[in-house]
Amino acid sequence: MAAGNLLATPSISEVHSITPYQTEGPFYPQHDQLDKDADLTRVQGRSEKAAGEVIFVSGRVLDMFGNPIEGVLIDIWQANKYGRYDHANDPNPAPLDPNFQGWAQLMTGSDGVYNIMTIKPGAYPQGDAWRPPHIHYGLSKRGYKEITTQMYFKDDPLNDLDGLLLAVKPKALRETLIVDFKTGIGKFDVVLATRNR
């Protein structure tokens, strides 16, 4: 099932600030893979679906004036249902899921829209704390500043304990990274700054 056309196009009046930078983290995919499409719940050549709660994320990539940006390359990567990345350096003892794609690459169209179908990632330990569930985004297009950021899930109690998320100030800017998923569908817009010439 495709994740496209699930949400109404968001109003550009919702755009207020450039999306804040968040760290890429240590688990950006190490090796290329053939299957990097927008459906992370299945791996090409495997019949089973990934374990976990299926979610749909839709949004637009916009400039600071609310105009859609065409041709933005979006990298999306995340942990699986158990909070484990498919990365050799991930120390989390949670199991890998061979049916979870874990990484997608897609390009925005003329309307700036992207859509993915994935599973809600699990939290994972980091030192003495736990990182809340989140999805990593890396966006790039000539003429705009490249950005890495993270999308979080509304009402997750770990959000209020996460130093990385709490470092985004003011609170109104931090809240642009937190998405409310209703019936498994959420909207996450990303606003890019133009690159100084």
Which fold does the CATH topology refer to? Protocatechuate 3,4-Dioxygenase, subunit A
For CATH, the homologous superfamily is named as Aromatic compound dioxygenase
What profile does the largest beta sheet have?
Answer: 5 strands, mixed
The CATH architecture category equals Sandwich
Look at the helices and sheets and give the structural class.
Answer: mainly beta
Radius of gyration of CA atoms, rounded to a whole number: 16 Å
Low-confidence stretches: 1-13
Helix coverage percent of residues?
Answer: under 10%
Strand order of the largest sheet: 3-2-7-8-9
How many discrete structural domains? 1
- From the spread of the alpha carbons, the general shape counts as globular
Averaged pLDDT: 91
| Number of helices, counting only DSSP H or I runs of 4 residues or more | 2
Strand content: 25-35%
Q: Encode the helix/strand succession as letters.
A: EEEEEEEEHHEEE
CATH class: Mainly Beta
How far is it from the N-terminal to the C-terminal residue, by CA?
A: 42 Å
3D structure, described in words:
The chain is mainly β and 197 residues long. The chain has a single domain (16-191), classed as Aromatic compound dioxygenase (Protocatechuate 3,4-Dioxygenase, subunit A), CATH 2.60.130.10. It contains two helices and eleven strands, in the order ββββββββααβββ. The chain has helices at 163-166, 171-174; strands at residues 54-63, 73-78, 103-107, 113-119, 124-126, 129-131, 134-140, 147-153, 178-179, 185-187, 190-192. The strands form three sheets. Strands 3-2-7-8-9 form a five-stranded mixed sheet, with no helix packed on it. Strands 1, 4, 10 and 11 form a four-stranded mixed sheet that branches. The longest helix is centred in the C-terminal third of the chain and has 4 residues, at 163-166. The protein is globular. Mean pLDDT is 91; it is low at 1-13.
